Batch of 3 targets.
Target 1
Amino acid sequence: MKKINLAVIDDDEMYVYAVKKLVEKVELADRTVYFENGKVALNYIDECIHHTYLLPEVILLDLHMPITNGWQFIKEFKKLKIRIDKRITIYIISSTVNEEEIYRAKHIAEITDFVCKPVTIDTFSVILAEMNYNNKINSN
């Protein structure tokens, strides 16, 4: 299985702990960074723009966080991404059942998919399969 650089942006400590254990168990990532809100994550991405090896290939983004929530993160990420020389895939990972939020997330180009919490090994398998498919398309 191809290992990735992963970023998890979520303020729920129990969820983050569970994701850490799952990432370790399935040996998913070469590098995983965790952020408690979107602002800290945006600062990290901005600082690493010229060091693409530090940037994640995949971001697991929660919607509801303090300081900078998921929607605000996406808005600011759109401005940053034009300066990033690397494809970054964003998955909304949320416990929301609000149909409007799910619809909104699925209609934002920067968001690859909306996944309901909790994430599982199957979730990571789907993400990796989608990345592999996209990498094949991008290399042709």
Target 2
Amino acid sequence: MRPLALTLALLLSGSAPALAIPVRQVAGVPMPDFEQITFRVLPALAAAGEIAITHPTVLKHLGYDPSRLWQVGAAADTVLMLGDVAGAFGLERFSLEQIAQWGLTGRLRLERLTLARLKMLAANTVGEIVKALAYEQLPPESVPLLRDLANYYFNGAIPYERLGELIAQVPGFAGLPLGTTDLAGYALSGLPGIERVAIGKLAGWASQYIRDIPGLSDVPFSKFLSFTGNFTGIAGLVDVPLSKIEHNRTRTITGSDVEGFAVPCPRDCLHVELGDPLRGSQWVGSTQQVRGGHGVLAAVNGGKEPTGRHPFGRWGKIVLTGVDEKAGKADFGLYLRVCIKTTLFDFGCTPYFLGPIPWIPSQEKALTFVGP
């Protein structure tokens, strides 16, 4: 990742608190190290939640049910589906070969994988996989899994020489699910080239949880779609963390992408006072709920999300979650959202309510990146 461009305030001394995620110092400002942050190392969700989608039109066009619930302590990669973050992260662009190359732990060994590890394959049909992997001109014998399925379906008398002809002339065979046979008995070579194809070319990819794709939880965020450029903005001093709940905070720098980022807080205003260059401004905490979300999915969670900011882009929201006035400490959390879009329909995004995931805390008289 290229160096971050920052406009910084005067740095005052302050001891750095213990950090739950990888960070690096940029001109004295603790910044998330997205080259080391993966879904595997993200702290667990600190609150339970639910997404309930019951509208029949939405379900029909999606082809899957995106409803789910999660408990306190759930990992984000067991809550987020690939389709939720296609616009923000673009994880469906990756192939297994790329995932194995980029994974920080080195755990993914493609030669040890069976086709059963790609759970979506069981529901893929012969016709879908022939088109996805461009097998149309190949004889069935050159694709071990499809050879065996063809022998099973045609009782050993395969009527056409090429897979393209088979799926065109025999719809029943084209519609045969790959899970008709035990995929655990096949290495990746059972579908030659499967390790090089983008996950998004496989039917059903959008409904797969991130953890269900082998090795994906070990790929650093720096490889994701939203992390290809520099993060620019300012860093402000956390002047005074206040544990006392106050009212009528009007000089805020927090809000939402619906209401803007200067939303006044009328009551129950957990907040921190900021110093130069934002002296007199307040970062209001999660006790204030603001309007969020877009489109059909904006109705999820009652259309509300905690007030906060987007220092690192719209993929996630940073929220003040707690303060310890005695220790001079402010805690922050990361909140995520679900966005769903198909070829024909854009259902919008939920409010940022999946969280909090403990983020980089700050100390009194220390700089905190607030973004643009």
Target 3
Amino acid sequence: MSWYYPKGWTDSGDGVEQVLIHYAATPPGQWPDWSWGHEARVLQDLGGFPRQRLKVLRMPRSVWDMENNRSTSEYRFHYYFEVFQGGHRWTTDLFSEDIVYRDLVYTDENGWITNICIYWSVGDWVAPVYSPMEDPRIPADSEFQARNYYTYDDKDRFHHEKYQMLYGLDLPHRFQSRMWGPRGATLVQQYHVGRMYPPEEKNETWLGPDGASAPGGGNCWYHHL
């Protein structure tokens, strides 16, 4: 699974035909070998004056640290821009950011919830992410882990079996998940909660600090990383 990071660009003059972002992720304290391979994406031209460009990048939730033979959920994000302008090509300096995470726990005192996600985004609601939350007492290898929900074909079976699993756990249920972003950034966040079983009780909503809400908007929590 991944999360989304919008990266923008503002044209500094006329005649810019195209802007690309080149990027790579490394473990903390390490630098990329650009000759070994990296990602590159074209930024979308949004128009305006000065002209704005944007690309939403799909970011990893962890990277592999070959030096220490382990996965790390906090890492370094390195990038530069390649600009084609007036028949010429030039590149910016290299930028590097620390990617860090924030863990959240949602406590369900009465057992109403069967499905819950953190609904969040970096900066504003341009590129929202659904991060499934799970009670750690659900076995990690269960096919009914929350992370499997979106790719599970038989949603009715998933709803029934997950309800039974949660019903067998003592209250309260404490659902956990994680958000990521660059150090110093602000995340906006709500919860997407649902009761998907029994069918006659099916209901879902988004929650902010002021209660039920439409997705996004100002009824949200802010997290400074």
